[in-house]
Amino acid sequence: MSRSYAIIGTGALGGYYGARLHHAGCDVHFLLHSDYDHVRQHGLICESKDGDFSILKPNAYRNANDMPRCDVVCVCLKTTQNHLLPKVIPPVIKDTGVVLVMQNGLGVEDEIAGIVGPERVMGCLCFICSYKLGPGHIQHTDYGLIALGEFATRGVSDRMRAIGDDFKHAGIPVQFAEDLRVVRWQKLVWNIPYNGLTTILQTDTAALMSDPHTRQFVERIMWEVVADARTCGVPVGDEIVDRMLRSTEGKLSYRPSMKIDFDEHRRMEVETMFGNPLRAAQAAGAISPFVEALYNQLKFLDARI
Amino acid sequence: MSRSYAIIGTGALGGYYGARLHHAGCDVHFLLHSDYDHVRQHGLICESKDGDFSILKPNAYRNANDMPRCDVVCVCLKTTQNHLLPKVIPPVIKDTGVVLVMQNGLGVEDEIAGIVGPERVMGCLCFICSYKLGPGHIQHTDYGLIALGEFATRGVSDRMRAIGDDFKHAGIPVQFAEDLRVVRWQKLVWNIPYNGLTTILQTDTAALMSDPHTRQFVERIMWEVVADARTCGVPVGDEIVDRMLRSTEGKLSYRPSMKIDFDEHRRMEVETMFGNPLRAAQAAGAISPFVEALYNQLKFLDARI
């Protein structure tokens, strides 16, 4: 019996993965807000580097209370909208269901554990470049891999493998994380310097990597985040820094998600991407001055959006 | 016998102080570059909060070799032009003369000591708000106090008092510093956070002080600079932080000099205001991560001007 999926937030992320799952035969239900009318009329369209695809008549909803209860609830909102989750998640999740937290940053699983209980929470990191070109219109330009990790336990669970199989059948590369905290912090090693500096300095990753001062500052920030993770008891290895630098160096100009939010005058995910890691590190005894500097500058910019 | 003054760089700073000294009866000679023709024709005009004044026919020069040798050579260039000094200073200074370093930042006296010898160097900190509205046209909006300090010795020298008297007669408040290093670092306590953050965040001092995150970040940076000074063996007292915060809080919107340079697409004084203090602090064993963060971000912005 195929699993049902609720997509909470049908944007660049939720729209892409939800439409892929739909085409792989999953029963997928999309929650929309401002784009609802447009998507009811014109469907969901995804221009992907791997070939375009669309859903003419998606199961679209304006209100979570109208949705069927699902096996997997994919949280794909910007974290700046997470105050909505206590009302949105309970009506759409089956008693045996699981919430898949597909958002950036740290601490979101803890928030959602407070709503549905920790055993019903799973983390899902999305390594993807996708944009919303317009209502129901997504552009997928690169990557797509997800990494799944249980929130309340370590190791690879049966339900992780089952959900992972659905994504694999949908053509999405899947990794299973033994320890969700490790992959969350590893992603922060990339997200903190690149999202922070491209937004503050109004630039892109290629420009940061070609200037000697920002190039080495990016690396200094990465080492600070690695040290913060370890201070928090999360064993992140040294090799991640070189891997993250190499994966960005030599790439074409790229605007991270926070820079896109800033450019489009949307509130930025400063608290989950910077504030939560900073507070976690400081609570564990780290100083973390570079993250503190970026956090304070971004809070200033965010307050003026 | 009245002292003669050479003003090296007749902009917002040199034009203001030079014209004041001229009106007090000193023999003042102005070196100009791009504004030379205009000033020869139209003179120097200063709109001051204390009353406007001007010099119709200033002693203006395009080339240092044409100037008479003077008792006091006031270096008023932007520090980004300091590569010119080895050619400009020697022909205008008397054997018994002194170079007054009226620039911002750290380390400039050392550079000039390499040209004329340390015993002919005096530091002069300028606490003034003035802008160049156009060629030979200066607006003086606030303050004006100078602090004089010997470079090679401690204590208040006779020549310091004599030069200070000239400035006092010109209506300029004068302080005598027993230890030039203390006043240099004290000024950095203000300059580093405000010049850095207004430039990086594209804002002014009032906005920084009214946002809670930048307000406390400014203070955190100030304490780091105080600690850096002490690590360098310079006894800067705690009270400076409160004094600098209070002098800025409640003031109207103010654009520090680096922000003005950035806005007007001029190269910024990043090395003397950030790079030299950072390297001095690190050489003495300090870590100074906030200054490092600001320095790297400013170097990126400066390279793109």
Descriptive report:
Chain A is of the alpha/beta class. Chain A has twelve helices and ten strands. The radius of gyration of chain A is 19 Å and the shape is globular. Chain A starts with a strand and ends with a helix. The mean pLDDT of chain A is 97. Chain A binds chain B through residues 197, 200-201, 203, 207-208, 211, 213-214, 216-217, 220, 289-290, 292-297, 299-301, 303-304, and chain B through 197, 200-201, 203, 207-208, 211, 213-214, 216-217, 220, 289-290, 292-297, 299-301, 303.
Write the layout of secondary structure elements.
Two copies of one chain form a homodimer.
Chain A: E1 4-8, H1 14-23, E2 27-31, H2 36-42, E3 44-48, E4 53-55, E5 59-61, E6 70-75, H3 85-88, E7 93-101, H4 108-116, E8 121-134, E9 137-150, H5 158-169, E10 174-176, H6 180-200, H7 205-210, H8 212-231, H9 239-248, H10 257-263, H11 270-283, H12 289-303
Parallel strand pairs in A: 1-2, 1-6, 2-5, 3-9, 6-7, 7-8, 9-10
Antiparallel strand pairs in A: 3-4, 8-9
Which properties best describe this structure?
globular; alpha/beta; 10 strands; N-(1-d-carboxylethyl)-l-norvaline Dehydrogenase, domain 2; ten-stranded mixed sheet; 2 domains; homodimer; 12 helices; 305 residues; Rossmann fold
